[in-house]
């Protein structure tokens, strides 16, 4: 199988599942303006997922559409990071997840813009402006929480304890990444992880958040191995296509 | 041979943006190319504003329908690169936005634009506050005037 297809799919799957998870906040945000903010971010993710799925479908060359890839695969065929499917939790955890993901996407897209693959470079250039905005939003709130009262500080600490071990999965590789890297098609995932970690350390020092010392990371991301939460997301996400096969707007 | 004399850009300027109908798709910077391929067939290149902007589907349809009136087949091609920026919105369109009650986007530096004060489109006061970085559509942020209390949208610099 074309390794670039799998790589493009991993990016699209992250965005779709992060977007789907975040869209659960629609009508349930902590207050009206944040409800709008979080669902706007979810919509950006869905748009980016659509674009990357379209390209993945083209790379696969089996006449599939972006919808086939989003709605008609089985659980083990999704290559998203487990962080994407991890439950929203409270406002602190939602913001922390968006923050971690934004920092990752910022580095990913900045590097992909230099890809020798024109379409990947264009998609990265298109998405990065949206992602920078998400970074501004999530880092602003994270700082507010971290420098707030005991309650908000405790909640950030608790959220960090919950999700930290899932962050490593963002940088797990799909088959064939080493070859793609040699052709300057994609950035090194290891390098991305280092950049990500340095940025987190820098931001956390400013915000006054202690970075976890544990190196333990959950395994299985990018290989189709998911947390127990994932099946429920797929049930909701794929409901219409399963109940009414082939239905369109 | 009537068709080939048609000014395509002028013709496309008659299509309003579906979400902000006071401006059209040409002055919004969405139309990136237009040409006749044969006498009754055109190729129109458009570029999306935001990755997930739902108006893009309508715009594509609007273009096809508009040309259909003249019996011309429109092939609409979506091109992502070079990526759309609010810097492409014309000055005329910016004034139309302001008159409509939407503060037009700052030009240039996107990060700096976040912290610049926005002028109330109703009373021109600069004593305004940001309510949310996001708004009713992907392209807007929510503000309020501290003097006349009017809530208003800012078209984000993108």
Description of the molecule:
The complex is a heterodimer of chains A (249) and B (158). Chain A is mostly helical and 249 residues long. Chain A has one domain: Ferritin. Helices cover 67% and strands 0% of the residues of chain A. Chain A is built from 11 helices and no strands. Chain A has helices at residues 3-22, 32-60, 66-71, 82-85, 91-112, 118-146, 150-167, 177-182, 189-207, 230-237, 239-243. Chain A is globular. In chain A, 44% of the residues are buried. The model of chain A has no long low-confidence stretch (mean pLDDT 96). With 158 residues, chain B is of the alpha/beta class. Chain B folds into 2 domains: 3-78, Fe-S cluster assembly (FSCA) (GMP Synthetase, Chain A, domain 3, 2-Layer Sandwich); 95-155, no CATH class. Chain B has helices spanning 8-12, 55-68, 91-100, 110-115, and strands spanning 31-38, 41-46, 73-78, 102-103, 128-132, 140-145, 151-155. In chain B, strands 4-7-6-5 form a 4-stranded mixed sheet. A 3-stranded mixed sheet of chain B has the order 1-2-3. The model of chain B has no long low-confidence stretch (mean pLDDT 93). Chains A and B meet through helix 2 and helix 6 of A and helix 4 of B.
Largest sheet of chain B: 4 strands, mixed
Beta-strand portion of chain A reads under 5%
CATH class category of the largest domain in chain B: Alpha Beta
Largest sheet of chain A: none
List the helices and strands and how they pair.
The complex is a heterodimer of chains A (249) and B (158).
Chain A: H1 3-22, H2 32-60, H3 66-71, H4 82-85, H5 91-112, H6 118-146, H7 150-167, H8 177-182, H9 189-207, H10 230-237, H11 239-243
Chain B: H1 8-12, E1 31-38, E2 41-46, H2 55-68, E3 73-78, H3 91-100, E4 102-103, H4 110-115, E5 128-132, E6 140-145, E7 151-155
Parallel strand pairs in B: 2-3, 4-7
Antiparallel strand pairs in B: 1-2, 5-6, 6-7
